[in-house]
Amino acid sequence: MRFRIVGSRKRASGAIVEFFDIDLEDPSGEIHSRDVIRHPGGVGVLPLLGDDVVLVRQYRVALDTPMLEIPAGRLEPGEDPRVAAERELSEELGMTATLLDLGALHVSPGYVDEIIHLFAAVDIVAANREPEGAEEEEAEIVRLPFREAIEMVEDGRITDAKTQIALMRMERSRE
């Protein structure tokens, strides 16, 4: 199965992403047009305080509703994911910590190249909270038992994919 990108045209650039028309040649030589979003990638951090987790409830404009999720943010060009995770933990929660790698995930590879690097935060120390942007300034910090967070994934109260995956990977590592 050999597919080959034979053309790429940028349609638009936004504040975070770029939009492309991609021409794709399939193994039979037929050309197909695909929409692709290029994203710099991001990080998500699951803070662990004993048997509790710390999540953030913040407004998400794409869904026009607040979402309960792990602290997360976008990578700057060329930025090390661990550095970005430390920044997001500080900005959103006012914490520093030792970070444990929980792997990465592709958000929706059918149309976007975004990859999110996940970490667990342990040995947490309080620091200055420095929210970045209106959504972070208005965010609610939520501390709850780890088991309750897992139940919220299982019953659909937590629907954010990066949060679900971070929690489930952490649960698996505890087994």
What are its keywords?
single chain; 175 residues; alpha+beta; Nucleoside Triphosphate Pyrophosphohydrolase; 2 domains; seven-stranded mixed sheet; three-stranded antiparallel sheet; 4 helices
CATH architecture of the largest domain: Alpha-Beta Complex
Specify the helix fraction band: 10-25%
- Number of spatially distinct domains: 2
- Rounded to the nearest angstrom, the radius of gyration is 18 Å
Which regions contain 5 or more consecutive residues with pLDDT less than 50? Answer: none
Tell me, briefly, the overall form. elongated
Classify the beta-strand content into a percent band: over 45%
How many alpha or pi helices? 4
Largest sheet, in brief, is: 7 strands, mixed
CATH superfamily (homologous) name of the largest domain: Nucleoside Triphosphate Pyrophosphohydrolase
Q: How many runs of DSSP E, i.e. beta strands? A: 10
The CATH topology annotation of the largest domain reads as: Nucleoside Triphosphate Pyrophosphohydrolase
State the order of secondary-structure elements, H for helix, E for strand: EEEEEEEHEEHEHH
For the record, give the distance between the C-alpha atoms at the N and C termini, rounded to a whole number.
38 Å
